Amino acid sequence: MILSSMKDVVFGYGSEPVIDNLSLEIEAGQFIGITGPNGAAKTTLLKLLLGLLRPWSGTVTLNKEITEGGKLAIGYVPQQVASFNAGFPSKVIELVRSGCYPRLGWFGRFTKEQEELVERSLRQVDMWEYRNRRIGELSGGQKQRICIARALAQQPQVLVLDEPATGMDIGSRSGFYKLMRHYVSNHGRTVIMVTHGLEETRPYLDTVISLEREEQEGWKCLVTNSCSAHFGPGA
Ligand SMILES: Nc1ncnc2c1ncn2[C@@H]1O[C@H](COP(=O)(O)OP(=O)(O)OP(=O)(O)O)[C@@H](O)[C@H]1O
């Protein structure tokens, strides 16, 4: 099943495009990595694929089965979530519980099932013992894990992570990639992850979308595995 496809997409922020005539399809039920150097437009590509940005020209088509209000039903962990300041008042468990709010309603009470889901999500990122700590007291890598637990508690069909391993030590990173692999393989979900550490992540990924600059030819988009892509004029 195709999750999202783009055809002849051109997009930029100023007068010059940063994505120039890109056609790409991504499939559901995969662990997908988007990689490339700083400024290669990884985050921009991600936002276009998810319907969060509108292209200048070309089309982006989202699978209707997993959209809500014209956008994909996703859990999104943006870049630099670790910037909660030291005064951030919420406890860890409150932040992760808030991942369940959309289904709970504003004044709802948490069911046993939801509490179990919150506990499971915190245990999956090894942060259950920190549940009563204030967010502002945690280290950068710990805050990152809490934000991932919050996204897991939403049980999204599509989990989108923008450089999630930033600030995690090497042991935590490999544990995290295994967790994401399991989420895809055993629960049939899709994970899309922007990553700088391709050597580390490649063994876990089904598909790699790589944005690379080529001498004289500008940016190229290379896709390995089951996705298909065409890039550049005349594609
Ligand atoms: N809101 C914005 N306004 C203007 N220019 C932007 C904006 N967001 C990104 N850009 C520019 O678009 C280009 C691609 O940015 P993008 O954030 O998509 O790259 P990236 O590959 O995710 O980079 P990084 O690895 O550094 O996070 C860059 O040249 C950047 O300066």
TrEMBL record:
Q: Which Gene3D superfamilies match?
A: P-loop containing nucleotide triphosphate hydrolases
Residue ranges annotated for the ABC transporter domain, each copy included: 4-235
A GO molecular function annotation here is: ATP hydrolysis activity
Cross-referenced InterPro entries: AAA+_ATPase, ABC_transporter-like_ATP-bd, ABC_transporter-like_CS, Metal_Ion_Import_ABC, P-loop_NTPase
Q: Which UniProt keywords apply?
A: ATP-binding, Nucleotide-binding, Transport
What Pfam families has UniProt attached to this entry? ABC_tran (PF00005)
Please, which domain of life does this record's source organism belong to? Bacteria
Q: Which PANTHER family match?
A: HIGH-AFFINITY ZINC UPTAKE SYSTEM ATP-BINDING PROTEIN ZNUC, METAL TRANSPORT SYSTEM ATP-BINDING PROTEIN TM_0124-RELATED
Q: What is this protein called?
A: Metal ABC transporter ATP-binding protein
What organism does the UniProt record list as the source?
Paenibacillus sonchi
